[in-house]
Write a structure and sequence with these properties.
738 residues; alpha+beta; 22-stranded antiparallel sheet
């Protein structure tokens, strides 16, 4: 019974957040391997209903059999909803199951009137060290001391506990120096806490490798206004391993619109970790041979302090700036950075079909765009750094629907070098003015007031704003060809609005290493919003905004816009209805298969909002020759379910080319199914279409609506296969009729 309760509480703990709560330390032995404590009174209101329902579901299940043992389990579970619940574990070397003792606060009246009568009924009374305890059939043991119900998973563990502690432990947990240090640092008003001591024993958690470095570990989780805070502390064994310098490079970073910031002085161990990498020597030799780079010198940039900033600089892509304090390593690292710049330039110059117009200018024609790369220097605070300026000029497209991307959006700058003894890499165009500016964000600056040794901060609201601006940029580029972005913005708001930020602060002092992890999130709103999105088609519609530029910019070498089918192909490709055979070819004269034609038809109807794809993957089709995992199974299944194609025959023949008669029948089925087209028979008929032909009415329907016409000799040619150009024409006419 109690194992089930423990499993329930443990699973619940992973679903909620909380931290160090008051534990009955005078009843807990000093020498423990692990302690956890839940305080349900401090759970956030958002998670209260989820916590309660999970516990109460267990109570409901146990009450199906109204016997004394299930009544006892129900009582304990109910107490877990409101009181402290503490567990301790001591791990045994040759036994996977630890010795465990659990403590839950209840009143003496509750024990004497409710619990003790049940224990007397279903258990056997025993006595150790003048303490009475009860053993149940499953060998769990119960006793009551100082307003605390104490439970052990085995009667032997209970005897050992009472022998050591009696009515209270003479060597109690509050005498454990590591516990008292860590507990004093724990968050107030927490919901969950955990303490680990004697780490060499906790093999079940695979932390034995750390016991040489760590004396103890503690963690607490607490609710705060707008989110949750998690605080963890390590007590290190070696004080000399602790760096004392506070993070400071953030003061030199360009400060506008930070999305992500990382700044740490605790990086010395990263160097030794990298050098222990299995292929380190191989990589070092390759860099030496190919780029004349000394990897040993390069990683010296990680020894002191580093900072990384990702920010919204108003560009189409966020900019990145990296700083590393070189200190005494400046003379060793600076030449390596120069060699990196030379190596980058060498690779660019060798890129085919590149043309080195001058020692400082490269011109590249990659077929789709003209790329110019200028190499120069830029002076920052009296130091000269390498600068690469890249401009991309897309070639004029024969696609009449392709938008013109403003040149300023396709200009990029990369800067690298050493300034003020700091290694710098940045894609921020304004780094010369931005360097030394400092982070211009009150939330981050407030976090830095306690001089941490490290900080990482993700500003999720800034991500939201960047994406909203990006949607506006895409819309302005696409112009009238794509203007409906309301759904995309709505989805962005629904996803990001519940979140504010995620922050980690590292603070290292003489006796402990503190790590504070803060999540600012409205859990109830995120649950509601994600439920709403899961029940709607908004995700798919929103994603269209981020593919629109790719669709609009498709340019096929084999489709001149002035060909009879050219505008149709580009119109459909700009809306994501058709794709090329390759990146830049459409193959207009190639015959189209039945699978390809159905995919084209379904994509067009979906684009118009007439139908919805009924399954994306692993679709169960009505045809024996269409596998559930074929690339076209989704479209074939959807077409069959909508009655667009005939399901009376068990074979679809997806790889066969489609005839004009078959295409006409499919278009006619769409007309009948959705009442989209004229039903008046105004067709003049074709000499090669007889009244007894199965496709006669379909041919008349497509002729009446102008979707398909005859040949110059007056025939329809029902048995001739349809090519990709003709298919585009047919589908375009069908869409234009809406």
């Amino acid at each position: 019974m109690f194992k089930k309760l423990l499993a329930t509480l443990t699973i619940t703990a992973t679903m909620t957040t909380s931290a160090f709560a008051a534990a009955p330390t005078n009843l807990i032995p000093e020498d423990i391997d692990l302690l956890f404590n839940f305080n349900a009174q401090n759970i956030s209101e958002t998670m209260r209903s989820h916590y309660d329902s999970f516990i109460l579901s267990t109570i409901t299940n146990t009450k199906e059999n109204e016997n004394s043992q299930t009544q006892l389990g129900s009582f304990i579970a109910e107490k877990a909803l409101t009181n402290n619940f503490t567990g301790t574990f001591n791990f045994q070397k040759n036994n996977f199951l630890p010795k465990s003792i659990f403590f839950i606060k209840i009143s003496s009246t509750e024990y004497s009137e409710t619990v003790e009568p049940l224990l007397k009924e279903i258990g056997t009374a025993e006595e150790t060290n003048n303490n009475t305890f009860y053993v149940l059939q499953d060998d769990t043991a119960y006793t009551y001391i100082q307003d605390t119900l104490i439970v052990s998973q085995t009667s032997i563990s209970m005897k050992e506990y009472l022998t050591a502690c009696g009515l209270g432990c003479s060597n109690a947990l509050n005498l454990n120096p590591n516990y008292t240090k860590l507990h004093s640092k724990a968050l107030n008003n927490n919901f969950f806490e955990i303490f680990m001591g004697n780490l060499q024993n906790i093999t079940a958690f695979e932390v034995q490798n750390y016991q040489a470095l760590i004396e103890g570990f503690g963690m607490s989780i607490s609710k705060i206004n707008g989110g949750f805070k998690l605080l963890s502390n390590f007590i290190p064994k070696e004080e000399q391993l602790i760096p004392k310098k506070a993070a400071s490079l953030y003061k030199l970073l360009p400060g506008q619109n930070p999305i992500f910031l990382a700044n740490s002085t605790s990086t010395a161990s990263a160097v030794s970790t990298i050098k222990k990498y299995n292929n380190y020597e191989q990589v070092k030799n390759e860099l030496k041979n190919e780029a004349q780079l000394n990897l040993d010198n390069l990683i010296l940039a990680l020894e002191k302090e580093f900072a990384l900033l990702i920010q919204d600089s108003g560009e189409i892509f966020p900019s990145l700036t990296f700083l590393a304090d070189l200190g005494s390593n400046t003379n060793a690292v600076s030449p390596e950075i120069d060699r990196i710049a030379d190596y980058i330039w060498k690779l660019m110059a060798e890129e085919s079909p590149a043309e080195l117009l001058s020692p400082n200018l490269i011109f590249v024609d990659n077929g789709d765009a003209l790329i110019r790369i200028n190499r120069g220097t830029i002076n920052i605070n009296g130091d000269n750094l390498h600068e690469f300026r890249v401009s991309i000029e897309p070639k004029d497209s024969q696609n009449p629907y392709a938008p013109r991307i403003p040149a300023e959006l396709l200009n990029f700058t990369f800067t690298l070098g050493v300034v003020d003894g700091n290694a710098l890499f940045s894609s921020n165009k304004n780094i010369a003015n931005g360097y030394g500016q400092g982070i211009n964000d009150k939330a981050i600056n407030d976090l830095l007031t306690n001089n941490p040794t490290g900080i990482t901060h993700l500003n999720i609201k800034q991500i939201e704003q960047y994406l909203l601006n990006l949607v506006d940029t895409i819309t302005s580029i696409a112009g009238e060809k794509f203007t409906d972005t309301s759904t995309t913005k709505e989805v962005i708001n629904l996803i990001f609005d519940p979140w504010t930020s995620i922050t980690t602060i590292n603070k290292i002092e003489k006796y402990y290493i503190e790590n504070t992890f803060t999540i600012m999130v409205d859990l109830q709103q995120i649950i509601d919003n994600y439920t709403l999105l899961a029940q709607s088609d908004k995700f798919r519609k929103a994603g269209k905004t981020f593919t629109v530029l790719n669709d609009l910019n498709k340019d096929f070498n084999d489709v001149p816009a002035n060909e009879w089918y050219g505008d149709d192909v580009y119109y459909l490709s700009s809306r994501g209805v058709v794709n090329g055979k390759t990146h830049n070819t459409y193959a207009p004269s190639e015959q189209i298969t039945r699978a390809e034609f159905i995919t084209l038809i379904v994509s067009a109807l979906r684009e118009k909002g007439i139908i919805e794809i009924e399954c994306e993957f692993n679709c169960t089709t009505p045809y024996s020759d269409v596998s559930d995992w074929d690339w076209y199974s989704s479209q074939v299944t959807t077409a069959a379910n909508y009655g667009i194609i005939n399901t009376q025959n068990q074979y679809f023949r997806p790889g066969d080319t489609i005839t004009r008669a078959e295409a006409a029948q499919i278009i006619s089925n769409i007309s009948a199914k959705f009442s989209l087209f004229s039903s008046d028979n105004k067709a003049i008929g074709f000499p090669d279409v007889n009244s007894s032909d199965w496709y006669k009415q379909a041919v008349f329907s497509v002729q009446t609506n102008g979707f398909m016409t005859g040949n110059q000799d007056g025939t329809f040619a029902p048995g001739r296969t349809l090519n990709r150009a003709e298919s585009a024409k047919v589908v375009r006419k069908m869409l234009d009729s809406q």
